Amino acid sequence: MAIIFVKQKRERSIQHKHPWLFSGAIERVEGDPQLGETVEVRSFNGDFLGWGAYSPNSQIRVRFWSFNQTDNINRDFLKKRIEAAVSLRRLLLADDSTNMYRLIHAESDDLPGLIVDSYADFLVIQILSAGIEYWRDTIIDLLHEILHPEGIYERSDVSVRQLEGLEQRSGSLFGLQPPDRLSVSENHHLFWVDLINGQKTGFYIDQRDNRQKFSSFINGGSVLNCFAYSAAFSVYALNAGAESVLSIDSSVEALNLAKENILLNQLPLDKCEWLSENVFTALRGLRDRARSFDTIILDPPKFAPTSALAQKAARAYKDINLLAFKLLKPGGVLFTFSCSGGIDAKLFQKIVSDAALDAGVNAKIISFLTQGPDHPVSLNFPEGAYLKGLVCKIT
Ligand code: SAH
Q1: Which residue among 187, 189, 227, 312 has the greatest number of ligand 1 atoms within 8 angstroms of its CB, and so is best to mutate?
Q2: What residues does CATH 2.30.130.10 cover in the chain?
Q3: In which region does residue 279 sit, left (phi positive, over 0), alpha (psi from -120 to 50) or beta (all else)?
Q4: Ligand 1 mean position to 230 CA, how many Å?
Q5: Cα separations (Å) of 258 from 101, 222, 236, 337?
Q6: Is 272 a catalytic residue?
Q7: DSSP one-letter code for 79
Q8: What residue ranges line ligand 1, CB within 6 angstroms?
Protein backbone atom coordinates (compact mmCIF):
# COMPACT_ATOMS: atom_id res chain seq x y z
CA MET A 1 0.00 0.00 0.00
CA ALA A 2 1.23 3.49 -0.85
CA ILE A 3 2.18 5.87 1.95
CA ILE A 4 1.51 9.61 1.94
CA PHE A 5 3.75 11.76 4.12
CA VAL A 6 2.30 15.05 5.31
CA LYS A 7 4.38 18.24 5.47
CA GLN A 8 5.73 19.40 8.78
CA LYS A 9 3.11 21.19 10.93
CA ARG A 10 0.29 20.21 8.54
CA GLU A 11 -1.09 17.29 10.53
CA ARG A 12 -3.25 19.39 12.84
CA SER A 13 -6.52 19.15 10.90
CA ILE A 14 -6.00 15.38 10.58
CA GLN A 15 -5.52 15.08 14.32
CA HIS A 16 -8.86 16.93 14.61
CA LYS A 17 -10.32 14.23 12.32
CA HIS A 18 -11.16 16.52 9.44
CA PRO A 19 -11.84 14.13 6.54
CA TRP A 20 -9.88 15.99 3.82
CA LEU A 21 -6.16 16.20 3.06
CA PHE A 22 -5.36 18.88 0.50
CA SER A 23 -2.63 18.41 -2.10
CA GLY A 24 -0.66 21.36 -0.72
CA ALA A 25 -0.17 19.63 2.62
CA ILE A 26 1.55 16.59 1.11
CA GLU A 27 5.33 16.25 1.44
CA ARG A 28 5.77 13.11 -0.67
CA VAL A 29 4.06 9.98 -1.91
CA GLU A 30 5.78 6.63 -1.48
CA GLY A 31 4.47 4.13 -4.06
CA ASP A 32 2.12 4.63 -6.98
CA PRO A 33 -1.47 4.75 -5.69
CA GLN A 34 -4.24 4.54 -8.30
CA LEU A 35 -7.54 6.43 -8.41
CA GLY A 36 -9.55 5.66 -5.28
CA GLU A 37 -7.10 3.19 -3.76
CA THR A 38 -6.58 3.09 -0.02
CA VAL A 39 -3.42 4.79 1.19
CA GLU A 40 -1.80 5.15 4.58
CA VAL A 41 -1.19 8.73 5.71
CA ARG A 42 1.75 9.47 7.99
CA SER A 43 3.12 12.58 9.61
CA PHE A 44 6.44 14.09 8.49
CA ASN A 45 8.09 12.04 11.23
CA GLY A 46 6.45 8.83 10.07
CA ASP A 47 3.73 8.50 12.72
CA PHE A 48 0.45 6.92 11.62
CA LEU A 49 -2.33 9.47 10.99
CA GLY A 50 -5.04 7.65 9.06
CA TRP A 51 -6.32 5.56 6.17
CA GLY A 52 -7.81 7.35 3.18
CA ALA A 53 -8.83 7.12 -0.45
CA TYR A 54 -6.38 8.61 -2.93
CA SER A 55 -7.55 10.94 -5.69
CA PRO A 56 -4.57 11.93 -7.87
CA ASN A 57 -6.33 14.72 -9.81
CA SER A 58 -8.21 16.40 -6.99
CA GLN A 59 -7.20 19.28 -4.72
CA ILE A 60 -8.67 17.08 -2.02
CA ARG A 61 -5.96 14.48 -2.58
CA VAL A 62 -7.05 12.12 0.21
CA ARG A 63 -10.44 11.63 1.87
CA PHE A 64 -10.05 9.81 5.14
CA TRP A 65 -11.82 6.57 5.86
CA SER A 66 -10.47 6.19 9.37
CA PHE A 67 -8.02 7.58 11.91
CA ASN A 68 -7.70 4.27 13.69
CA GLN A 69 -4.61 2.19 12.85
CA THR A 70 -6.31 -1.13 13.59
CA ASP A 71 -9.08 -0.56 11.01
CA ASN A 72 -9.03 -2.48 7.74
CA ILE A 73 -10.71 -0.72 4.87
CA ASN A 74 -12.76 -3.55 3.40
CA ARG A 75 -16.32 -4.78 2.90
CA ASP A 76 -16.88 -5.29 6.59
CA PHE A 77 -15.67 -1.80 7.41
CA LEU A 78 -18.03 -0.27 4.84
CA LYS A 79 -20.87 -2.45 6.09
CA LYS A 80 -20.51 -1.09 9.62
CA ARG A 81 -20.46 2.51 8.36
CA ILE A 82 -23.58 1.99 6.23
CA GLU A 83 -25.38 0.24 9.08
CA ALA A 84 -24.53 3.10 11.45
CA ALA A 85 -26.02 5.64 9.02
CA VAL A 86 -29.15 3.54 8.53
CA SER A 87 -29.74 3.04 12.25
CA LEU A 88 -29.40 6.79 12.86
CA ARG A 89 -32.25 7.38 10.38
CA ARG A 90 -34.39 4.69 12.02
CA LEU A 91 -33.96 6.57 15.28
CA LEU A 92 -34.64 10.01 13.80
CA LEU A 93 -37.55 9.21 11.53
CA ALA A 94 -39.54 6.64 13.35
CA ASP A 95 -42.99 7.41 11.97
CA ASP A 96 -44.97 6.66 8.84
CA SER A 97 -45.76 10.22 7.75
CA THR A 98 -42.66 10.35 5.56
CA ASN A 99 -41.09 7.85 3.21
CA MET A 100 -38.28 9.84 1.65
CA TYR A 101 -35.13 10.72 3.45
CA ARG A 102 -31.37 10.94 3.10
CA LEU A 103 -29.88 7.69 4.28
CA ILE A 104 -26.22 8.56 3.82
CA HIS A 105 -24.92 12.11 3.88
CA ALA A 106 -21.34 11.63 2.70
CA GLU A 107 -18.62 13.10 4.94
CA SER A 108 -21.21 13.67 7.69
CA ASP A 109 -21.83 9.91 7.84
CA ASP A 110 -18.13 9.04 7.64
CA LEU A 111 -18.52 7.88 4.04
CA PRO A 112 -16.83 10.74 2.14
CA GLY A 113 -18.45 11.37 -1.23
CA LEU A 114 -21.41 8.98 -0.90
CA ILE A 115 -24.99 10.24 -1.03
CA VAL A 116 -27.83 7.76 -0.73
CA ASP A 117 -31.44 8.93 -0.71
CA SER A 118 -34.36 6.66 -0.02
CA TYR A 119 -37.68 7.21 -1.85
CA ALA A 120 -40.34 4.69 -0.87
CA ASP A 121 -38.88 1.36 -2.05
CA PHE A 122 -36.16 2.86 -4.23
CA LEU A 123 -32.68 4.07 -3.45
CA VAL A 124 -30.89 6.79 -5.40
CA ILE A 125 -27.14 6.85 -5.08
CA GLN A 126 -24.75 9.65 -6.00
CA ILE A 127 -20.99 9.07 -6.03
CA LEU A 128 -18.87 12.19 -5.62
CA SER A 129 -15.42 10.85 -4.76
CA ALA A 130 -12.78 8.55 -6.20
CA GLY A 131 -12.81 6.44 -3.02
CA ILE A 132 -16.50 5.63 -3.24
CA GLU A 133 -16.16 5.00 -6.97
CA TYR A 134 -13.44 2.44 -6.17
CA TRP A 135 -15.78 0.57 -3.79
CA ARG A 136 -18.91 1.08 -5.93
CA ASP A 137 -19.80 -2.58 -6.53
CA THR A 138 -19.28 -3.50 -2.87
CA ILE A 139 -21.41 -0.55 -1.74
CA ILE A 140 -24.26 -1.43 -4.10
CA ASP A 141 -24.13 -5.01 -2.90
CA LEU A 142 -24.21 -3.88 0.74
CA LEU A 143 -27.13 -1.49 0.14
CA HIS A 144 -29.03 -4.39 -1.37
CA GLU A 145 -28.11 -6.73 1.49
CA ILE A 146 -28.95 -4.26 4.28
CA LEU A 147 -32.02 -2.51 2.85
CA HIS A 148 -33.61 -4.84 0.25
CA PRO A 149 -34.82 -2.04 -2.04
CA GLU A 150 -36.89 -2.74 -5.15
CA GLY A 151 -34.33 -0.88 -7.17
CA ILE A 152 -31.13 1.17 -6.91
CA TYR A 153 -30.67 4.01 -9.38
CA GLU A 154 -27.45 5.97 -9.85
CA ARG A 155 -27.54 9.76 -10.31
CA SER A 156 -23.82 10.51 -10.54
CA ASP A 157 -24.67 13.10 -13.20
CA VAL A 158 -23.09 16.09 -11.50
CA SER A 159 -20.19 18.20 -12.72
CA VAL A 160 -18.24 18.12 -9.42
CA ARG A 161 -17.20 14.57 -10.35
CA GLN A 162 -14.79 16.12 -12.85
CA LEU A 163 -12.71 17.44 -9.95
CA GLU A 164 -12.15 13.82 -8.94
CA GLY A 165 -11.34 12.75 -12.50
CA LEU A 166 -14.64 10.89 -12.84
CA GLU A 167 -17.10 10.87 -15.76
CA GLN A 168 -20.76 11.71 -15.22
CA ARG A 169 -23.00 8.66 -15.14
CA SER A 170 -26.58 7.65 -14.40
CA GLY A 171 -28.69 4.54 -14.76
CA SER A 172 -30.27 1.61 -13.04
CA LEU A 173 -27.84 -0.46 -10.95
CA PHE A 174 -30.02 -3.08 -9.39
CA GLY A 175 -33.58 -4.41 -9.50
CA LEU A 176 -36.41 -2.43 -11.01
CA GLN A 177 -35.92 0.89 -12.76
CA PRO A 178 -37.95 3.54 -10.90
CA PRO A 179 -41.16 4.60 -12.67
CA ASP A 180 -41.14 7.98 -14.51
CA ARG A 181 -43.12 9.33 -11.61
CA LEU A 182 -43.09 7.81 -8.16
CA SER A 183 -45.51 8.93 -5.46
CA VAL A 184 -43.91 9.58 -2.06
CA SER A 185 -44.94 11.30 1.14
CA GLU A 186 -43.46 13.92 3.42
CA ASN A 187 -45.25 14.83 6.66
CA HIS A 188 -48.44 13.34 5.16
CA HIS A 189 -48.16 15.51 2.04
CA LEU A 190 -47.89 13.61 -1.23
CA PHE A 191 -45.45 14.31 -4.05
CA TRP A 192 -44.63 12.95 -7.45
CA VAL A 193 -40.89 12.60 -7.83
CA ASP A 194 -38.92 11.88 -10.97
CA LEU A 195 -35.85 10.01 -9.76
CA ILE A 196 -34.41 9.65 -13.26
CA ASN A 197 -34.58 13.22 -14.57
CA GLY A 198 -35.63 15.35 -11.60
CA GLN A 199 -33.35 17.90 -9.91
CA LYS A 200 -30.93 16.65 -7.24
CA THR A 201 -31.94 13.03 -6.66
CA GLY A 202 -35.59 13.95 -7.28
CA PHE A 203 -36.64 16.15 -4.37
CA TYR A 204 -35.25 18.74 -1.92
CA ILE A 205 -35.52 16.42 1.07
CA ASP A 206 -33.44 18.70 3.29
CA GLN A 207 -36.33 21.20 3.66
CA ARG A 208 -38.74 18.73 5.30
CA ASP A 209 -38.77 20.25 8.79
CA ASN A 210 -38.76 23.79 7.44
CA ARG A 211 -41.85 23.10 5.33
CA GLN A 212 -43.61 21.81 8.43
CA LYS A 213 -42.64 24.92 10.34
CA PHE A 214 -43.71 27.09 7.41
CA SER A 215 -47.18 25.56 7.34
CA SER A 216 -47.68 26.48 10.99
CA PHE A 217 -47.24 30.14 10.02
CA ILE A 218 -49.99 30.09 7.40
CA ASN A 219 -53.17 31.75 8.50
CA GLY A 220 -55.13 32.22 5.29
CA GLY A 221 -53.58 34.97 3.21
CA SER A 222 -51.46 35.09 0.09
CA VAL A 223 -48.20 33.23 -0.46
CA LEU A 224 -45.37 33.84 -2.93
CA ASN A 225 -43.16 30.77 -3.43
CA CYS A 226 -39.93 31.73 -5.24
CA PHE A 227 -37.69 28.99 -6.68
CA ALA A 228 -40.64 26.66 -6.22
CA TYR A 229 -39.33 23.55 -8.05
CA SER A 230 -42.15 20.98 -7.77
CA ALA A 231 -44.14 23.31 -5.47
CA ALA A 232 -43.52 21.54 -2.18
CA PHE A 233 -43.93 24.75 -0.15
CA SER A 234 -47.05 25.62 -2.20
CA VAL A 235 -48.64 22.25 -1.34
CA TYR A 236 -47.99 22.85 2.36
CA ALA A 237 -49.37 26.40 2.06
CA LEU A 238 -52.66 25.35 0.47
CA ASN A 239 -53.01 22.43 2.84
CA ALA A 240 -52.64 24.83 5.74
CA GLY A 241 -55.38 27.08 4.37
CA ALA A 242 -53.64 29.74 2.25
CA GLU A 243 -56.06 31.71 0.06
CA SER A 244 -53.73 31.95 -2.91
CA VAL A 245 -50.23 30.84 -3.90
CA LEU A 246 -48.06 32.23 -6.65
CA SER A 247 -45.20 29.81 -7.51
CA ILE A 248 -42.22 30.96 -9.59
CA ASP A 249 -39.55 28.78 -11.17
CA SER A 250 -37.53 29.11 -14.35
CA SER A 251 -37.99 25.42 -15.13
CA VAL A 252 -41.12 24.56 -17.11
CA GLU A 253 -40.69 20.84 -16.32
CA ALA A 254 -40.60 21.62 -12.61
CA LEU A 255 -43.81 23.62 -12.81
CA ASN A 256 -45.54 20.87 -14.78
CA LEU A 257 -44.72 18.42 -12.00
CA ALA A 258 -45.75 21.10 -9.51
CA LYS A 259 -49.28 21.33 -10.92
CA GLU A 260 -49.65 17.57 -10.65
CA ASN A 261 -48.53 17.74 -7.04
CA ILE A 262 -51.38 20.14 -6.28
CA LEU A 263 -53.84 17.68 -7.83
CA LEU A 264 -52.25 14.68 -6.09
CA ASN A 265 -53.05 16.32 -2.76
CA GLN A 266 -56.59 17.19 -3.93
CA LEU A 267 -55.91 20.87 -3.44
CA PRO A 268 -57.60 23.62 -5.49
CA LEU A 269 -55.70 24.53 -8.67
CA ASP A 270 -57.82 27.68 -8.96
CA LYS A 271 -56.01 29.12 -5.94
CA CYS A 272 -52.68 28.70 -7.76
CA GLU A 273 -50.89 31.09 -10.04
CA TRP A 274 -47.74 30.00 -11.90
CA LEU A 275 -44.87 31.99 -13.36
CA SER A 276 -42.15 30.33 -15.36
CA GLU A 277 -39.65 33.15 -15.17
CA ASN A 278 -36.32 34.24 -13.74
CA VAL A 279 -37.07 35.20 -10.11
CA PHE A 280 -34.84 38.28 -10.36
CA THR A 281 -37.02 39.77 -13.09
CA ALA A 282 -40.28 38.31 -11.83
CA LEU A 283 -39.91 40.05 -8.45
CA ARG A 284 -39.36 43.39 -10.21
CA GLY A 285 -42.47 42.76 -12.31
CA LEU A 286 -44.54 42.06 -9.19
CA ARG A 287 -43.22 45.24 -7.57
CA ASP A 288 -44.10 47.28 -10.67
CA ARG A 289 -47.62 45.84 -10.60
CA ALA A 290 -47.89 46.73 -6.88
CA ARG A 291 -48.53 43.14 -5.83
CA SER A 292 -48.05 42.21 -2.17
CA PHE A 293 -48.08 39.00 -0.11
CA ASP A 294 -48.53 37.80 3.47
CA THR A 295 -45.84 35.14 3.26
CA ILE A 296 -42.86 34.84 0.90
CA ILE A 297 -40.41 31.96 0.43
CA LEU A 298 -37.00 32.47 -1.14
CA ASP A 299 -35.29 29.11 -1.64
CA PRO A 300 -32.74 29.74 -4.41
CA PRO A 301 -30.17 27.32 -5.79
CA LYS A 302 -26.58 27.46 -4.58
CA PHE A 303 -25.33 30.88 -5.72
CA ALA A 304 -21.90 30.31 -4.10
CA PRO A 305 -20.73 26.70 -4.06
CA THR A 306 -17.35 27.90 -2.74
CA SER A 307 -16.20 30.96 -0.82
CA ALA A 308 -14.43 32.27 -3.96
CA LEU A 309 -17.86 33.12 -5.35
CA ALA A 310 -19.21 34.57 -2.11
CA GLN A 311 -19.10 38.24 -3.11
CA LYS A 312 -21.03 37.85 -6.32
CA ALA A 313 -23.48 35.54 -4.58
CA ALA A 314 -23.95 38.03 -1.73
CA ARG A 315 -25.16 40.64 -4.21
CA ALA A 316 -27.66 38.16 -5.67
CA TYR A 317 -28.99 37.18 -2.23
CA LYS A 318 -29.30 40.81 -1.23
CA ASP A 319 -31.17 41.67 -4.41
CA ILE A 320 -33.89 39.05 -4.01
CA ASN A 321 -34.23 39.59 -0.26
CA LEU A 322 -34.59 43.34 -0.71
CA LEU A 323 -37.29 42.86 -3.34
CA ALA A 324 -39.07 40.28 -1.17
CA PHE A 325 -39.12 42.62 1.83
CA LYS A 326 -40.70 45.28 -0.38
CA LEU A 327 -43.40 42.87 -1.54
CA LEU A 328 -44.43 41.84 1.99
CA LYS A 329 -47.62 43.22 3.54
CA PRO A 330 -47.40 44.81 6.97
CA GLY A 331 -46.91 42.00 9.50
CA GLY A 332 -45.84 39.66 6.67
CA VAL A 333 -43.34 36.85 7.06
CA LEU A 334 -40.31 35.99 4.92
CA PHE A 335 -38.80 32.50 4.84
CA THR A 336 -35.39 33.05 3.29
CA PHE A 337 -32.76 30.37 2.62
CA SER A 338 -29.22 29.88 1.40
CA CYS A 339 -27.72 26.48 0.65
CA SER A 340 -24.39 27.97 -0.47
CA GLY A 341 -21.36 26.41 1.18
CA GLY A 342 -19.48 29.65 0.46
CA ILE A 343 -21.84 31.81 2.58
CA ASP A 344 -21.87 31.07 6.28
CA ALA A 345 -24.76 31.72 8.66
CA LYS A 346 -23.30 34.96 9.96
CA LEU A 347 -22.76 36.43 6.50
CA PHE A 348 -26.22 35.31 5.38
CA GLN A 349 -27.82 37.08 8.32
CA LYS A 350 -25.83 40.24 7.51
CA ILE A 351 -27.01 40.14 3.88
CA VAL A 352 -30.66 39.76 4.93
CA SER A 353 -30.27 42.53 7.48
CA ASP A 354 -28.78 44.89 4.83
CA ALA A 355 -31.65 43.98 2.51
CA ALA A 356 -34.26 44.91 5.12
CA LEU A 357 -32.47 48.17 5.80
CA ASP A 358 -32.37 49.14 2.13
CA ALA A 359 -35.99 48.07 1.67
CA GLY A 360 -36.92 50.43 4.51
CA VAL A 361 -38.66 47.80 6.64
CA ASN A 362 -38.31 46.83 10.27
CA ALA A 363 -38.07 43.09 10.65
CA LYS A 364 -37.19 40.60 13.34
CA ILE A 365 -35.79 37.11 13.04
CA ILE A 366 -38.29 34.82 14.72
CA SER A 367 -36.65 31.53 13.80
CA PHE A 368 -33.33 30.12 12.63
CA LEU A 369 -33.66 27.14 10.31
CA THR A 370 -31.34 24.47 9.02
CA GLN A 371 -31.33 21.14 7.18
CA GLY A 372 -33.30 18.18 8.54
CA PRO A 373 -31.80 15.63 10.96
CA ASP A 374 -31.26 13.09 8.16
CA HIS A 375 -28.62 15.57 6.90
CA PRO A 376 -26.52 15.50 10.08
CA VAL A 377 -23.39 17.57 10.59
CA SER A 378 -20.30 15.82 11.82
CA LEU A 379 -18.58 17.92 14.49
CA ASN A 380 -15.26 17.33 12.72
CA PHE A 381 -16.75 18.48 9.39
CA PRO A 382 -18.50 21.82 9.91
CA GLU A 383 -18.75 22.25 6.12
CA GLY A 384 -21.63 19.77 6.35
CA ALA A 385 -23.88 22.52 7.76
CA TYR A 386 -24.82 24.03 4.41
CA LEU A 387 -28.48 25.03 4.69
CA LYS A 388 -29.28 28.27 6.47
CA GLY A 389 -32.74 29.74 6.83
CA LEU A 390 -34.20 32.78 8.56
CA VAL A 391 -37.83 33.46 9.31
CA CYS A 392 -38.24 37.24 9.40
CA LYS A 393 -41.40 39.05 10.43
CA ILE A 394 -42.12 42.62 9.47
CA THR A 395 -42.89 44.59 12.62
N1 SAH B 1 -38.03 25.29 -2.96
C2 SAH B 1 -37.85 24.08 -3.71
C3 SAH B 1 -36.40 23.82 -4.06
C4 SAH B 1 -35.76 24.94 -4.81
S5 SAH B 1 -34.35 24.48 -5.69
C6 SAH B 1 -38.44 22.92 -2.94
O7 SAH B 1 -38.87 23.10 -1.81
O8 SAH B 1 -38.47 21.82 -3.48
C9 SAH B 1 -34.08 25.84 -6.70
C10 SAH B 1 -35.07 25.99 -7.85
O11 SAH B 1 -34.79 27.26 -8.45
C12 SAH B 1 -34.94 24.99 -8.97
O13 SAH B 1 -36.21 24.41 -9.19
C14 SAH B 1 -34.51 25.79 -10.22
O15 SAH B 1 -35.17 25.37 -11.41
C16 SAH B 1 -34.94 27.18 -9.86
N17 SAH B 1 -34.14 28.29 -10.38
C18 SAH B 1 -32.80 28.41 -10.43
N19 SAH B 1 -32.44 29.65 -10.81
C20 SAH B 1 -33.59 30.33 -10.99
C21 SAH B 1 -33.90 31.67 -11.36
N22 SAH B 1 -32.92 32.56 -11.59
N23 SAH B 1 -35.18 32.03 -11.46
C24 SAH B 1 -36.17 31.14 -11.22
N25 SAH B 1 -35.95 29.88 -10.83
C26 SAH B 1 -34.67 29.47 -10.72
Answers
A1: 227
A2: 3-66
A3: alpha
A4: 9
A5: 20, 18, 12, 20
A6: no
A7: H
A8: 199, 204, 207, 227-230, 232-233, 248-251, 254, 278-280, 299-301
CATH of 75-175, one of 3.30.750.80, 3.40.190.10, 3.40.980.10, 1.10.10.60: 3.30.750.80
Q: Which atom of ligand 1 is nearest to 233's Cα?
A: 7
Cα–chain center distance at 35: 26
Identify whether the C-beta of residue 62 lies closer than 8 Å to the C-beta of residue 54.
yes
The domain over range 204-394 is classified in CATH as 3.40.1190.20: no
pTM of the model: 0.96
Instruction: Return the residue whose CA atom lies nearest to atom 15 of ligand 1.
Output: 251
Give the Å distance between the CA of 39 and the centre of ligand 1.
40
Please tell me the residue having the least CA distance from ligand 1 atom 23.
278
272 contact partners, CB below 8 Å, separation of at least 6: 234, 238, 244, 245, 246, 247, 259, 262
What string of pLDDT tens digits covers the 395 residues of the chain? 999 999 999 999 999 999 999 999 999 999 999 999 999 999 999 999 999 999 999 999 999 999 999 999 999 999 999 999 999 998 887 788 999 999 999 999 999 999 999 999 999 999 999 999 999 999 999 999 999 999 999 999 999 999 999 999 999 999 999 999 999 999 999 999 999 999 999 999 999 999 999 999 999 999 999 999 999 999 999 999 999 999 999 999 999 999 999 999 999 999 999 999 999 999 999 999 999 999 999 999 999 877 788 899 999 999 999 999 999 999 999 999 999 999 999 999 999 999 999 999 999 999 999 999 999 999 999 999 999 999 999 99
- Residue of 210, 213, 249, 279 best suited for mutating to test ligand 1, as the one with most atoms within 8 Å of CB: 249
Distance of CA 34 to the CA centre of its chain: 30
Q: Which fold has domain 3-66?
A: 2.30.130
Helices and strands in the chain: count of H runs, count of E runs? 10, 20
Mutate to test the pocket of ligand 1, among 206, 250, 283 (most ligand atoms within 8 A of CB): 250
Closest ligand 1 atom to 230 CA: 8
Q: Centre a 10 Å sphere on the Cβ of residue 94 and count the other Cβ atoms it contains.
A: 7
302 Cα: distance to centroid of ligand 1 (angstroms):
10
Residue spans in the chain of domains classed CATH 3.30.750.80: 75-175
**Which one of 226, 272, 339, 392 is the catalytic residue?**
339
